[in-house]
Amino acid sequence: MLENVSGSARPARRGFLLGAAALGAGGMLSACTSNELPQSTSAGAAPAANASSTPGKHVTIGFAGPLADHGWLNAINVNATERAASYEDVTFETTEGSNDTAQQIGQVETLINKQVDVLIILPADGKALTQVGLRAMEAGIPVINLDRIFDSPQAYRTWIGGDNYGMGLNAGRYIGEQLKDKPEATVVELAGLDNLELTQQRTRGFDDALKNYPNIRKVARQAADFTVESGQAKMAQLLQAVPRFDAIWNHDDDQGIGAERAIAQAGRDEFFMVGGAGSLHAMEAIQADNTVLKATVLYPPTMAASAVDLARALGQGTGVSGLAEHEIPTSLALYSAVVSKENVADYIATGFV
């Protein structure tokens, strides 16, 4: 069902965010430990830097990640695997990716039974996997909770992930700056799965940003399912329902491919689109500057490479280079940079397929 929008209440921002924008998408975290690594030319793992060539204590890292049924989720797996392979002193124990919570719980329990040194878990459902995270911590295995957060901070040693509220906020600010001089501007929103907290946070951030631009009104919102097919179907509904608007905020670049198809089929080009996540397809379209897609807001899959850095640091008992504290932080929220034609050359190597 198409949702007509007139505004929303301002939420409390996620309380555990650390001002980690300066850490970027993993550059500073890559100096957690003590190996000198070659610069990666892959669009997967971010490069490591600033370290000794001498390997440290051997660490076995267990990784329970998602089923790679989406470009961003596949990039998570690629980043983690490539980063781990770059360390001589890391053994990487992976499970078959799963979006089924019961199966993923069983996979994590297998890694616990193998007595890995550190666990990295991107849960299919943070709430459902909280108990198994607690079991790992109680067994003396520190857990890096990747992105989708567990219900209890006792279930993980460190959380690292994207800033969903900030993603929506920066999308709204970018759109606001482009339309600030246009009287009675209108925008629409193509969201993700509405039953996910991350989708709700992205919408809240977007709505809060638009409050700073009284000339802009959000006139419609449609929730899709993070797939190409849903993006095309839901975008077609938006286009039919709203005969004219000035901009669209699309939460996800994968569903954005479908949205672009619907836009082309409708022959519409009176608006510009801002995407989300940072796919290679989106960045190439932005660079070519020949479609309505003019920007994307990053949700960096390089967080998985940084999670490996943090896991290795935990296993070796070291801290993060550049911070005074001996221990690594308890939470790191990555910054959602806006990539546009002006800076796409700086980011295109990180685009995921």
Automatic annotation (TrEMBL):
Pfam families: Peripla_BP_4. Keywords: Signal. Residues 61-317 form the Periplasmic binding protein domain. GO terms for cellular component: cell envelope. One of its GO terms (molecular function) is carbohydrate binding. Belongs to the bacterial solute-binding protein 2 family. This is Ribose transport system substrate-binding protein.
